Amino acid sequence: MERVYLDLKARIISGQYPPGTRLDPTQLAKTLDASATPVRDALHRLSGERIVESWHQEGFRQPSLAEADLCDLYGWGGLLLSHALKGRTPHPMTGGLFELPGHAGYMEAVESLFRTIAIGAQNRELRYALIANIERSQIFRAAEARIDPASRELLAAMEEDYRFGRWTGLRSKITSFHRRRVAQAGRIVAELKPRTEPLR
């Protein structure tokens, strides 16, 4: 079941299924080389994490997010990250330099930075909330990069602040980053829609 859960989760947050796609356990079982029961269990677990939607007697589907939903998710993510950095001071033994895994791609790099901040949060509930927000937001990252050419540059500036422990500057950049994403939410939602679906 854990293999099926992790595989299915990776497919969903990578954007393999367009918004609104019905997720049928029997069909998914064939592609995941598993029986329908662990697939259904995984879908229930992902529904609890709000990565997929479940409706009584209607099964499961990839969420169909509206612009307002995306604005709320971005706003919540910015608040959580800012709170995780509040009051943080460089450890005296680090000399002000913090390690951060290097990633060339925007999608991987933004997840790495935000997840690193989340793991460093002192409050366990804050860590859980941040990780959940990061995973639910991952599906938008490719669309962000497509509609905003400055995405990697903005992220590089945040990465540099993190490496040198410039927490005040990083909090400010994270707030600006998420406000920028809120302003772009309508374009990001449109970018995620299947091309056969009319844009509204």
Automatic annotation (TrEMBL):
The keyword Nucleotide-binding does not apply. Keywords: DNA-binding, Transcription, Transcription regulation. It comes from the Bacteria. GO terms for molecular function: DNA binding; DNA-binding transcription factor activity. Residues 1-65 form the HTH gntR-type domain. PANTHER family: FATTY ACID METABOLISM REGULATOR PROTEIN, TRANSCRIPTIONAL REGULATOR, GNTR FAMILY. This is HTH gntR-type domain-containing protein. The lineage of its organism: Bacteria, Pseudomonadati, Pseudomonadota, Alphaproteobacteria, Sphingomonadales.
